[in-house]
Amino acid sequence: MRILYSLLFFLIAFGVSSCGEKDSTLREQSFDEAWLFHRGDIAEGEKQSLDDSQWRQINLPHDWSIEDIPGTNSPFTADAATEVAGGFTVGGTGWYRKHFYIDAAEKGKCIAVSFDGIYMNADIWVNDRHVANHVYGYTAFELDITDYVRFGAENLIAVRVKNEGMNCRWYTGSGIYRHTFLKITNPLHFETWGTFVTTPVATADKAEVHVQSVLANTEKVTGKVILETRIVDKNNHTVARKEQLVTLDNKEKTEVGHALEVLAPQLWSIDNPYLYQVVNRLLQDDKVIDEEYISIGIRNIAFSAENGFQLNGKSMKLKGGCIHHDNGLLGAKAFDRAEERKIELLKAAGFNALRLSHNPPSTALLNACDRLGMLVIDEAFDMWRYGHYQYDYAQYFDKLWKEDLHSMVARDRNHPSVIMWSIGNEIKNKETAEIVDICRELTGFVKTLDTTRPVTAGVNSIVDATDDFLAPLDVCGYNYCLNRYESDAKRHPDRIIYASESYASQAYDYWKGVEDHSWVIGDFIWTAFDYIGEASIGWCGYPLDKRIFPWNHANCGDLNLSGERRPQSYLRETLWSDAPVSHIVVTPPVPSFPLNPDKADWSVWNFPDVVDHWNFPGYEGKKMTVSVYSNCEQVELFLNGESLGKQENTADKKNTLVWEVPYAHGILKAVSYNKGGEVGTATLESAGKVEKIRLSADRTEIVADGNDLSYITLELVDSKGIRNQLAEELVAFSIEGDATIEGVGNANPMSIESFVANSRKTWRGSNLLVVRSGKSSGRIIVTATVKALPVASITITQKK
């Protein structure tokens, strides 16, 4: 057995969240409010003398690419430099400025600003002085601005962001799209990302917890301080505590640490994502010099060809999906609630693992995975030295890869959700000695930062000659290489494999490849959640060019852009669920979208064209292909109470049973049987004329912090409450109270309507509104108006 990893990991929870994270402290404060924004370049935008009184005021996170192109009512244009890859959205250059005050009492302390992500190529100035340039749009970074600020006076930070040309294979967003923080610390303090918590022992009886920290000593002070470390449970009871006297010498950095023991710990798992908290303190003369709070999850993981992946000693298969970083109609904006909702929806659809393709995520997303129990493959790059486009990261790779890889691993290595580090995806020239050496170098560098997790990569077009590239990897990600599982295992019996990407249309075969082989630990569908960019690959496929406009998102996710489950998600549920599952779909008599006559045979990201409604006026008496996805032994289909026959779910049917049914308005019903007994039913009922608007919110109570969100789904329904998926109507929204519309949209992959307007057409009888909270308590009333229908409203309560 070549590999066996077993360890406890912990998460560092930075910042403020409306979803249960620690409140701001003086040490670290949200820096998201009251920025000024100018779309386009401007001469000397960093100068304090510049008049910015007419600039637009915004609160972060912000993404200008999801907003309407100036002079239009759409974020999309056929002439966009991003073309198909970016979903015909527009980047360019933008400026951000923020005026802020540092109290005179803070003089002598260290002042830093941290950014969780800026897309991309950001230059930062403070008080007219250039502080730094940060290129990679997905990695977090922190800037020490102590020498640039004025204490007891107003300061100016300016950020120029350049997202120019085609530089990515999907939608990136533009601007400061993740959170920012202002940090004020004593010259002696815990270094950012310097604390790493592990355990050589983690069982139900006890956990041996090692908390290793780096003390930053910017003024090289000498003397003695006390390091105190406590572990606290959810009830705020201290379950372990240690302290030691630390002698400081004339060094800028000092490594310190404790070994603590937690008896009978709650082990973190996908079903019980229990989080403790580590409180790390530095004390001198009975005063707290610095303090950090770290949310932690106790668990151990192991990988081997014999036992596959094990969590807390139990083998389990990774029911995985790939996701890009955008949040649909919000673009790239990484609101905590948007990231949390995404994980909630994916977990509800059966996923237990995600591959974050192909870049480091927001801290907010990993925090959500920790809280909710979702396993993660954290990924660094989509290319190395040889890129996909002229302006992509490849031109910076040799200079910056170590800095950016360090950022990902050091920031994320304490999250219990993270189980693997991926150093790349579909790397070009991977069979050459040059790229094999890079693979070895990157793998080795990751292990200098964290030896507790395996290193992996997503690898395509695998042949025998790919062995040298795969050799440095601990676990091998196979992109669309189902046919290699058995032959490669014979050649390399210790190789651990997972499908790092797979096709939805081949879900049954890919999952059987996981179930039937111990060395294949999971399957990650492309994709779990639909996304903007790679426009139409789930329908038109490759090759693609500007002719496919107005397509703007991929149309290949198990969940669509609004977060609703598509038919392919229900087929996957029949494979993953132990409970009986059946779901009815219908092949429409006319294709859902215009077909691509030039589609290549190898481009098979499309799932069969099916819908889950029974409304086809004008086709009465004509045969319709009806399929039932089921994991049951037998299924019987009924139309308006009349049996259309019972079918056996034999292996060759791959959980898809098919009937030809003459269309008639009414009710389709599938009855499922196991061992001769009825175990479940599924129905599709024809919708009548739309009679009313139905509004439902994912949460009717939100936090008045200016950053919380409520997702409101609108449906056009008949008198019985059945949604009519043929209804496409313009909806006008209005809000009363201290809240704003953050986004409005639907899942139509060809719609180019505005995401930031107060109106939107429905598609398949529905659309989605996202409301952003204000700062005051009270009621928020959202009203929806559709011509010739009664007005509908819903009330959201907003509390401090």
From TrEMBL:
A single BP term in Gene Ontology: carbohydrate metabolic process
GO terms assigned for molecular function: hydrolase activity, hydrolyzing O-glycosyl compounds
Location of the Glycoside hydrolase family 2 immunoglobulin-like beta-sandwich domain: 195-299
Gene3D superfamilies, sorted: Galactose-binding domain-like (2.60.120.260), Glycosidases (3.20.20.80), Immunoglobulins (2.60.40.10)
Pfam families in alphabetical order: DUF4982, Glyco_hydro2_C5, Glyco_hydro_2, Glyco_hydro_2_C, Glyco_hydro_2_N
Domain spans labelled Glycosyl hydrolases family 2 sugar binding: 55-176
Domain Glycoside hydrolase family 2 catalytic span(s) in chain numbering: 308-472
Record keywords, A-Z: Glycosidase, Hydrolase
Glycoside hydrolase family domain residues: 693-795
Statement: the UniProt record of this protein carries the keyword Transferase: no
Domain DUF4982: 621-679
Record flagged with keyword Hydrolase: yes
SUPFAM superfamilies, per the entry: (Trans)glycosidases, beta-Galactosidase/glucuronidase domain, Galactose-binding domain-like
Family listed: Belongs to the glycosyl hydrolase 2 family.
Name the record gives this protein: Glycoside hydrolase family 2 protein
Species of the source: Bacteroides cellulosilyticus
